[in-house]
Amino acid sequence: MRSTRPSSHTVRGAGRRRRKSPALAAVALASALALTTTACESGDATADGQASASATASDDGKLKIPADIRDRLREHGIDIDKWKNGAWKNWDRDDWLREANEYVNPIIEGLWNPDRMREAEEPGQDVDEGEIAEDQGKTDPTPAPVQARAVPPSYHANAPTAGKVFFDSPEGSAVCSATVVKDPAHPGKSNLVWTAGHCVHAGKKGGWYRNIAFVPSYNDDGKPVAELENATREDVAPYGVWWGDWAQTSDQWIEQGGSTGGDGAPYDFAVIHVTPEKGSGGKSLEETVGSALPVEFKAPAVPRVKRVVAMGYPAAKPYDGQKQYECESRPGRLSVNASDPTMYRIGCSMTGGSSGGGWVATGWNGKPALVSNTSIGPVTSGWLAGPRLGDVAEGVYDSVSKKFAGR
User: Which of 30, 116, 245, 345 is the most exposed place for a label (fewest CB within 10 A)?
Assistant: First the structure.
């Protein structure tokens, strides 16, 4: 589910459809790939009948709908009162906003309550298992499985930039993983979140997902499911619920991406700009969680990357989506299409729900940086693959940053 970029921004390579290479069969993606929608989990789309509507929060805690969002809603015949009362559940293809400049995501206060967050499940899809010249078109042997290890709580103390992205799809409520990243336009005060493109946009057969929101340090204390059944919102979202007031992904995902297989996977990334559901006292997301990762767009070619740590909230069995895990491994190469950038691939037991989770490695300056995100993996689990971030990813990132530079 990848998001789109504004129509005024041109992403390099956008608009070109690529032929599948015969190398794909030779590479053995005879075992079909599942978007980790296997890593995207979905469940009941029923909203809380008591939810009230707004679109953004001012520092005094009062909620209001910005004029630009009202205008975009009117352009598409969307009445905010009908939307808050459930009109967002209309997924008629003709009414499903698709293009980059059609992104609309008004806040529905209270929609993401603890039960709805906890019950977001996998959608039940059954599937079978340029800048990288020296790697282009190459695939290394399937890596040995690496058992994911539990991140010790509190997650805020040990992984403050990690969290979950919740959203609604035609199949129901859904969940991915995500990472707080730095914003060059607002040093120390970022409101940017990095995730997979397939966590915000359905790709070639659909449009934008709805009610997209980020929860940093979800279930910070690492409580088991049984203890979360009567949890308060503060228990599961101690640092608030942050709604995506803008999101972008690559044109390649919008034109090629789907719910299964590897089409568009080398460009499966997205950036979300968020705003608090309720007033945050004027603090940004980065200030609220106390940290944000830089994004490395010129990471070394795969053979030279010594180690990555992939993080996420796996939700498909044997996991339950309520706890944070990580896999540490040296990546190999995975080529889905010889004409596209080669992806990173690691052995990892994480399953659906971990999609969009950040991959952290040592950047050029010797400090931790985000170098990829979980995109695809086999339905049986065992490994994960993520895009190598290059010019297209940097274009998406810069576009979102510049859009909010003067705000």
Answer: 30
